[in-house]
Amino acid sequence: MSLESVEVVVRGYRAFIDGDFAAIAELLDDDVEWYPLDGGPQSFVDHAEVLGVVAERYREQYRVELERCVGVGDQVVVGFRASRETRATSP
Q: At residue 67, what are phi and psi to the nearest 5 degrees?
């Protein structure tokens, strides 16, 4: 099962690159958990909020580099880098 689970992650990564949010929505489990780096009081968001964050990152032209996917059973831990270019605005 772990190879199949890793393949789901890779399909989601490719869907993000293509801007295919319908495919991402289909791939995400209804009980998706998202642990943002800034954490705050909310440690995870629901399915709709995850899709909203992904769409926002796409619009902001984030570049995502998938570094590693490790699957054990139906769980996958993903290591990736996300970055975007920002330009300073003139006063």
A: -100, -40
